[in-house]
From TrEMBL:
CDD domains documented for this protein: USP_At3g01520-like
InterPro entries found in the cross-reference section: Rossmann-like_a/b/a_fold, Universal_stress_UspA, UspA
PANTHER family listed in its UniProt record: ADENINE NUCLEOTIDE ALPHA HYDROLASES-LIKE SUPERFAMILY PROTEIN, USPA DOMAIN-CONTAINING PROTEIN
Taxonomic classification: Eukaryota, Viridiplantae, Streptophyta, Embryophyta, Tracheophyta
Organism domain of life: Eukaryota
Domain UspA per the UniProt entry, residue ranges: 22-177
Name of this chain's protein: UspA domain-containing protein
One Pfam family hit: Usp
Species name: Malus baccata (Siberian crab apple)
Amino acid sequence: MGEAIPRGVERMGEVVAKGAEKKVMLAIDESECSHYALMWVLDNLKDSINNSPLIIFMAQTPSNGNITFSASLGAARMYCPMSSSQEFVNSSQENQRKFALALLEKAKQICASRGVNAETVTEVGDPKEAICDAVKKHGIKLLVVGERGIGKIQRAILGSVSDYCVQHAKCPVLVVKKSQADALA
């Protein structure tokens, strides 16, 4: 007989290993911490994600459309018609979309090289909220995020994506923290 597990408590592997409906999502960005989290998932959850694809998610920060140009008082006046500003915003958003798709494709290739089927998803929005919305939208059962390792002051002022997800995601959240030994390597 197996060991008794208290009612309502599941092991992490059981959370994601019981069938195709149990989805795991990894939220990434361009940071080294996200790459580390991807490798951690592939090394530690591979058996658990065999029944359904790993969802790799990246948020694209929305452009607010406010463009600020600075010039000295003696500089010539600058006239920037609205259409040019909008073209700049559109170009910036398109470049951000291409960057996100390239980063997601690279992550998908890394998964494929390890024998893991992955799907990629990107959405425009504040990363914290976009991640939690995607969890709900895609029926995610386990969210994995990397920890940036920002200091207490920065975390208090700016907030932390991982902290926000732990508080607001509608599923268990696994925060992958790079160990001191790995940070030195």
